[in-house]
Amino acid sequence: MTAVAIWYNEIGKGVWAVSDTLLSKSDGAGELIKDASKVLPLTVARRQVTSQDKDIEWSAIRYGPELGFCFAGSSLVAQNIYLALVPLLGNVKTFSEDFVPKLASVAEYVFSYSCERWEDYKYTLGEAGLFELGLFGYCLVEKKFSVYLIRFEKSDGVYELKLHAHENLKDNDFFYLGDQREKVEELIGKEFASGGKPGRPVDRAPKNVLGDLINDPNWETIGGGMQLAISTSLGLEMYATCTKLGSQITYLGRPLDTVGKLDEGMPLGNFIY
User: Fold this and answer.
1) Which of 83, 100, 136, 237 could form a disulfide with 15 if both were Cys (CB 3.0 to 4.6 A apart)?
2) In sequence order, what are the beta bridge partners of 177?
3) Are the beta carbons of 64 and 236 closer than 8 angstroms?
4) What's residue 29's pLDDT?
5) CA distance 189 to 110
6) Fold adopted by 3-272
7) What is the mean pLDDT of the segment spanning 223-237?
8) Cα–Cα distance between 142 and 137 in angstroms, integer?
9) Spatial distance between the Cα atoms of 257 and 266, rounded to a whole number of angstroms
């Protein structure tokens, strides 16, 4: 199963997302893998057609908007949708030099694509293929942060995908995807209401709560490590985590120091306590 929380963090200057990294077996009995990526970058890359003569010419690649993409439910379906969206949105062609899609338009495209794919998956997977998607980021056109959730609603025994837009975010607005939603939302709400304490800043309430659940053996469907992403007006950044000053830096619950560097660069050089 999965636990993913998205929230608007005014102190942190953007939309934050945190998840566990455990994938359970399809029947929920036991772990499958403990280092699954559930929060992923999704970037729109645009090229303008600059000549329509015999040989078509293209402009340099322009990037944006850059979103966070997260999921719960069927990893097979959600990851397959994501893997298809990466080249689709990463190769957008336009005749307009000034074209920049709104974040809402990207969300609507992702929703439309997900609906199309579900029409196939529902016959082969049934309820085992149900999933939730979350999209979040900064709109370069409207100059604001937004969160979009794609979820199933059941009516007369039929599951139908719905797109829920949250475009006027207030500080500490949060959204949860995954296992035991009511219980986890209650815990996060209480954490925000507590006002925080040393080592548990209130603006990171969802991170604090998911960290507790990941380390609690009584929550068998939430576990592994932690994944963290932050969307600011400059784009999306993924973060490694560490528990305290001087402790080991990890990503997806795995240490990074054993992997090495990329020449002189340090992959995922950002980390948060």
Assistant:
1) 136
2) 4
3) no
4) 64
5) 29
6) Glutamine Phosphoribosylpyrophosphate, subunit 1, domain 1 (3.60.20)
7) 94
8) 12
9) 10
| 1-27 residue pLDDT tens | 689 999 999 988 899 999 999 998 766
pTM exceeds 0.85: yes
Return the beta strands (E) in 100-225 as ranges.
131-139, 144-155, 158-166, 174-178
Q: Region of 122 please: left (phi>0), alpha (psi -120 to 50) or beta.
A: alpha
Q: In angstroms, what CA-CA distances link 21 with 60, 104, 127, 223?
A: 37, 28, 22, 6
129-154 mean pLDDT = 97
CA–CA–CA angle 9, 36, 70 (5° rounding): 40
DSSP H or E run through 23 = strand 23-24
Ranges assigned E (strand) in 34-173 = 39-51, 57-58, 62-73, 92-94, 131-139, 144-155, 158-166
Which helix (DSSP H) or strand (DSSP E) does residue 250 occupy?
Answer: strand 250-251
**Ranges of each domain in the chain:** 3-272
Q: What's phi and psi for 99, nearest 5 deg? A: -65, 125
